[in-house]
Amino acid sequence: MWIGLTGGIATGKSAAKKQFEGLGIPVIDADELAHQVMQPGQVGYQQVVSYFGTNVVSQSGDLNRSALAEIIFKSIDEKEKLESIIHPLVQAEVQKQKAYHQKIGTPICMYDVPLLFEKKLEKQFDRVILIWCDPQTQRARLKARNQLTDEQVSDRIRAQMPLSDKLPLVQHCIDNSTTYESLHLQVKTLVEKLKKTVSL
Hints:
This protein is an alpha/beta fold.
């Protein structure tokens, strides 16, 4: 079973991913793959620097992700340009990893992808899981985690499809507005349900 795992910025998708992995479900991570393709020497890195310029390169030679974020969260066109560079490279690697899991007979495999609906990927999955939290909690987490201003928080949330629009499109929703224990219980219950479905 091929499952899409998505959410919104600061809804706790990374915490949910760890929970799924801890219960034996392999999760392919789009953000991790995006970091890999943008490492110095990689094609993605070269294309990003070629387009955005050396002002997005740090003194160490790595991409200055903060500088890049300030550019793309202020401009839809620039955000779409960055995604057009990274997305095909990430998708190619995802297909390799998916094929591997199919070959070895992995019963359930997840793809953790923040922009699942924005990139219209939902039709490729058997199921989609949304990690949701209430808007106030989302803003508070994002502001505290990244030490952002209210304006920067709004820019980052506005850059993604609203959670309220994603909710009707998914088969499963996990509410991560409260405690880690609540998250664990919901993930555990869902994994048990999915395993029963696969074994039918």
